[in-house]
Amino acid sequence: MNNLGVYIHIPFCVQKCLYCDFYSLPGALDKAKEYIDKACGQSEQLSAFCRDRVCDSIYVGGGTPSILPPEEISRLIGTVRRCFGATETCEITVECNPGTVSRESFEVYKSCGVNRISLGVQSYRDETLARIGRIHRFSDALDAVDAAHAAGIGNVSCDLMYALPGQTEREIVDAFERLSARGIRHVSLYGLKIEENTPFAGMKLRLPDEEEQAKTYLSSVALFEKHGFYQYEISNFAVRGYESRHNLRYWNREEYLGIGPAAHSFFDGVRFCSGRDLEGYLANGDFTLSSPFYVEKERISQKEAREEELMLSLRLTSGYSLDLLYANTANRKQCELYVHQLMRSGLAVVSDGRLILTPEGMLVSNSVISDLLLLYGA
Amino acid sequence: MNEEQIKREHTRNFCIIAHIDHGKSTLADRLLEATDTVAKRDMEAQLLDNMDLERERGITIKARAVKLEYNAPDGETYHLNLIDTPGHVDFNYEVSRSLNACEGALLVVDATQGIQAQTLANAYLAVDDNLEIVPVINKIDLPSARIEETQKEIEDVIGIPAIGCPAISAKAGLNIPDVLEAIVRDIPAPKGDENAPLKCLIFDSYYDPYLGVVVNVRVMDGRLKAGMRIRMMHTGAEFDVVEVGTMAPFGLVPSKELSAGDVGYITASIKTIADTQVGDTVTTAEGGAAEPLPGFKKAQPMVFAGIYPLDGSRYTDLRDALEKLQLNDASLSFEPETSVALGFGFRCGFLGLLHMEIIEERLEREFNLDLITTMPSVVYKVKKRGGEIVYIDNPTNYPSGDDIVEACELIVNANIITPTEFVGGIMDLCQDRRGTFIDMKYLDASRVELRYKLPLNEIVYDFFDALKSRSRGYASLDYELDDFVPSRLVRLDILLNGEQVDALSFIVHQDKAYGRARKITEKLKDNIPRQLFEIPVQAAIGGKIIARETVKAMRKDVLAKCYGGDITRKKKLLEKQKEGKKKMRQLGSVQMSPEAFMAVLKLGDE
Question: What ipTM is given for this predicted complex?
Answer without folding.
Answer: 0.86
